[in-house]
Amino acid sequence: MAWSFVFSKTRPLNTSTTFTIFNLRPYLSIFTSDFSTSFLVTKTPQKFKKRKKKESPRTTLVQTEPNRIPALERIVERDAFFRFLIKSKEFLSKQPQHVLRLDDAGKLYRELGYPRGRKVARFIQRHPLIFETYRHDDGKMWIGFTDFMEELLEEERSVMDSMEIDRVDKVRKLLMMSAQKRIPLSKIYHCRLLFGIPEDFRDRVAKYPNYFRVVVEDGGKRVLELVNWDPMLAVSALEKEFMVDEDKVKRAFKFAVKHSKDLDLDEDDTRKLNLLNTLPLVSPYSDGSKLDLWTLEAEKYRVGVLHEFLSLTLEKRASIHHVVEFKEEFSLTKHTYQMLLKQPRTFYLAGTEMNWVLFLKDSYDENGVLINKDPQVVFTEKLFKYAQMQER
């Protein structure tokens, strides 16, 4: 390509002829353009991009800020704080002499209830009135209970013995609610602290042949079966409350009529229509396994079962792990979490979406204190008090 330039002659300078270039811009348009280059997309390298943290059910709270009940949320936090105390107390109580070598304790983080990678000695030091360490004759450090804690354990055994008949009735009611009137002993053992059932309950059932029968299935699984149905026990906490405060029970649950908005009813008529849809409730002691899974009656049954289940617990609350433990026995579905969220008048879900705790709201006052306390609850509160003290 030939380049053409336009020159102009200027006055001589030192007998030299100098030329100036003018009007060059039009011919250099390929180098300097008046058009924008914003159409050129520049990408930020991936390593420089700020990544947004994905919402995780492990950290996402169940309740939004306006609906949170701080007093109940604090109970969940308290349980997390005392997790090491409760689990270590249970584990050590089953060891010979109630002692454990410290080197072994450092490997049993699941059994003792402390985070992996942490020093177990730090958690022992939290509770000097409960745990102590000492050097044994073998030269190794061991962990055990203090003499004061041994006294408390004796007191707890006395409380449990005095409440044995009550605990037996709780287990009978659980069996009566179950679909086949039978529950594996391992499930009852796993949830024993929830109901105040003693460690040796599997041996104690032999004392009550009129109530229980232990069946060993193929594979060695031991299953507890109900021997006799007791109509006096087949009365739910809601039914008892209905005799005292009928209006309160009517307000306990809400099963809204589908498409009720399309009926263009006023607020009072909508309330009456929903009440007709809610009542009558389905007894948790009826055979829920025969109900069509997705009917209104089946949902009423499942809500009633969980209400009765919580009523049988010592502290009127249970974690997701306890609820899921009895999924087959109580004919629960994978939508249990959403079902409970629809009943905020009676239930309160605290914690995170992956690790929630279910409360019976009416069992607690505005400060998060249980209104009616089982003797074992009173003992546990005393234990927590001593566990936070540095000296007597």
UniProtKB/TrEMBL annotation:
Protein name: PORR domain-containing protein
Record domain PORR: where: 68-391
Molecular function (Gene Ontology), one example: RNA binding
Recorded superkingdom: Eukaryota
PANTHER family: OS09G0473400 PROTEIN, PROTEIN WHAT'S THIS FACTOR 1 HOMOLOG, CHLOROPLASTIC
